[in-house]
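User: Let's play a game. I give you a shape written as tokens, and you guess the letters that built it. Ready? Here's round one.
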């Protein structure tokens, strides 16, 4: 029984050691999972920082392109204003003369100007110049004998107003785009941070719930083993008690018979008036043997009683320990099951929150993409915009030179006609 008790202690100590080793391994797995989550989160953060830097660079580039476009638009307006002024300053005298004198000499040059502007519009892919050329051509064809120069100046004024309006709209669009991109970027950063926070909480709750469920499964297995062990102990104790209850009465009855026999023999051989010759030597041997048997029976009975008492005490002690262990583990199962259920509920709520934040984040990303298209589809690179505007301005200046030359020619001819008439 002592060996059995020590074996049981070794068994339970080994079980505790295995549980401790398993707990240590689970802690290592949890740490590894947390390290992996930290790596993923760090990588996502670095990518977001990189994307933010790229977006900032794009905003700076767009701002520079807008400034360049504004400057180029200003130069274009200045050139058109100069052209308007040149036409206005050089056509005053011609307006007071008869258009019939100018009609024959200017038709060729006027159509040459229209052709130049059409070529320029085709080369630079400029619809505004193409429309201007078309309108100039119509004005030249339909305004014989009228103030064609006033018509041209009106067209140039309309072009200047249109370009000024486009410039104002471009500035307004740039201001709106900067505001929307800034606000949307801030919302994206906030949503990213909230998404990461909720994801971390969800992973932590899910991991803890899984760990608790594994612990509950282990406890339930140990409770089943404990119940099996207790049942085996109950059977062994029942068998031990049955043997004791059978052997003790037999030993007591046997000891009682030995004592009775000793009393009879001792009483007989103690008589002084025996009627026959007794064998005192043989009688003493029998009495001595019975006394040895009496001693063995007495010792055996004491050992049986002591063994029963020890077995009963051990059974009671182990039964109480098993009952305490059972109660403790049942409570652990109850509380850990409840905690795991709470964590599952929390994880479900977090999952819903994550889906909501993910939808919001997707909406912000889609809106940023639409802003990217809306705010950049009209913007050219500075070099392309500058080259195109320079070519347009150069072509318009050449056309204005032709018009100015024609105006000077008409004025000279008119002056000669006046002197000749005088």
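Assistant: Ready! My guess for every position:
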């Amino acid at each position: 029984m002592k060996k059995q008790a020590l074996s049981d202690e070794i068994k339970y100590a080994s079980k505790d050691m295995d549980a401790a080793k398993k707990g240590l391994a689970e802690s290592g797995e949890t740490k590894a999972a947390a390290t992996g989550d930290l790596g993923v989160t760090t990588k996502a953060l670095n990518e977001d920082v990189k994307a933010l830097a790229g977006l900032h660079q794009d905003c700076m580039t767009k701002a520079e392109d807008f400034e360049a476009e504004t400057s180029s638009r200003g130069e274009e307006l200045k050139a058109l204003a100069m052209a308007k002024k040149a036409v206005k300053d050089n056509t005053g005298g011609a307006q007071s003369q008869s258009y019939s004198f100018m009609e024959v000499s200017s038709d060729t040059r006027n159509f040459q100007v229209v052709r130049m502007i059409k070529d320029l519009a085709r080369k630079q892919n400029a619809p505004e110049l193409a429309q201007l050329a078309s309108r100039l051509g119509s004005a030249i064809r339909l305004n014989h004998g009228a103030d064609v120069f006033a018509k041209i100046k009106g067209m140039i004024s309309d072009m200047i107003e249109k370009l000024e309006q486009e410039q104002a709209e471009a500035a307004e669009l740039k201001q709106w785009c900067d505001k929307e991109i800034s606000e949307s970027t801030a919302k994206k950063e906030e949503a990213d941070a909230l998404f990461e926070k909720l994801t971390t909480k969800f992973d932590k709750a899910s991991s803890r719930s899984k760990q608790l469920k594994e612990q509950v499964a282990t406890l339930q297995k140990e409770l089943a083993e404990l119940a099996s062990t207790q049942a085996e102990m109950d059977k062994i104790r029942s068998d031990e008690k049955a043997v004791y209850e059978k052997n003790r009465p037999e030993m007591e009855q046997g000891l009682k018979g030995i004592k009775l026999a000793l009393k009879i023999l001792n009483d007989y051989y103690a008589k002084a008036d025996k009627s026959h010759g007794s064998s005192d030597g043989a009688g003493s041997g029998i009495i001595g043997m019975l006394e040895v048997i009496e001693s063995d029976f007495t010792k055996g009975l004491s050992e049986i009683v002591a063994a029963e008492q020890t077995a009963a005490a051990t059974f009671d002690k182990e039964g109480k320990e098993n009952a305490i262990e059972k109660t403790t583990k049942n409570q652990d199962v109850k509380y850990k099951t409840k905690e795991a259920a709470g964590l599952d509920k929390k994880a479900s709520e977090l999952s819903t929150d994550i889906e909501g934040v993910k939808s919001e984040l997707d909406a912000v990303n889609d809106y940023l993409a639409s802003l990217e298209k809306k705010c950049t589809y009209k913007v050219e690179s500075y070099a392309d915009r500058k080259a195109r505007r320079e070519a347009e301005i150069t072509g318009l200046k050449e056309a204005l030179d032709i018009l100015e030359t024609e105006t000077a020619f008409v004025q000279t001819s008119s002056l000669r006609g006046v002197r000749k008439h005088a």
